[in-house]
Specification:
Helices cover about 25% and strands about 35% of the residues. The chain has 6 helices and 12 strands. A hairpin with a 2-residue loop joins strand 7 and strand 8.
Length: about 230
């Protein structure tokens, strides 16, 4: 879609069968039909030559290429799970009344505060090319406390009317409910824009799993393998 920076590798430029996509931040995915030669070259790229630009590659595959099935790379593996919000879940969310946090308010990111938000969270240019792209496409909602940003929920990517959720709360404001406030605002904004919010996190991330389920997300499928490959 040419929405974000990265690279696409294929086994054949004219009639690709297997594809490896690498985001500039390091998120990556492999899909298509298995091509032995391509997978051999990809293994060399990732594990021998380490030619990727990011400090880490965070690789997801709907299926495991042969070189990742080896027990040699088991230490690089984690489990993640994907969740979505159903119409029923959103209905329950809309009817739920959460405890109002004193001196807290919900806001958005615009040209007047985007650099301030960047100075606090450092995420404006993490996935999106420019601050303007972040403002227009990330659909960010911010929970403010006493006029200062406490937590932010935004889209790390948007495609096919689906918005991939990322949440960040500043250390001094964690475990106080600000993340949930930001997430709820983000979900409602997504539905107002006819976007489907998606949640994806490590299964051992207790905080993320707890927020996800508490606001009404349900699992799309069983956990899947995720590999973190360092330089």
């Amino acid at each position: 879609l040419d929405e974000q920076n990265g690279a696409v590798f294929v086994d054949d430029v004219h009639t690709p069968a297997q594809v490896y996509v690498e985001h500039a931040f390091g998120f990556a995915q492999i899909f298509g039909k298995r091509v032995e030669k391509f997978e051999q070259e990809l293994e060399r790229y990732l594990f021998i030559d380490k030619l990727f630009s990011p400090d880490k590659i965070r690789l997801y595959a709907p299926y495991l290429p042969g070189f990742l099935e080896s027990s040699v790379h088991e230490s690089l593996r984690s489990d993640r799970q994907r969740f979505h919000m159903t119409a029923e879940g959103f209905s329950r969310l809309s009817q739920t009344h959460f405890k109002t946090l004193k001196d807290a308010r919900l806001g958005e990111v615009d040209a007047s505060n985007v650099e301030w938000i960047e100075s606090k969270f450092g995420i404006v240019r993490r996935f999106w090319r420019t601050p303007d792209d972040f403002i227009k496409k990330a659909n960010a909602t911010v929970a403010f406390y006493n006029g200062t940003p406490a937590s932010i929920c935004y889209s790390a990517a948007v495609a096919d009317h689906c918005a991939e959720i990322d949440v960040l709360t500043l250390p001094e404001h964690r475990k106080l409910g600000f993340a949930k406030v930001a997430v709820i605002g983000f979900i409602k904004r997504c539905f107002s824009l006819s976007l489907q919010p998606l949640w994806d996190c490590f299964t051992n991330n207790a905080g993320s799993m707890s927020i996800c389920k508490s606001v009404g997300f349900t699992a799309l499928r069983e956990p899947y393998p995720f590999f973190t490959i360092s330089k």
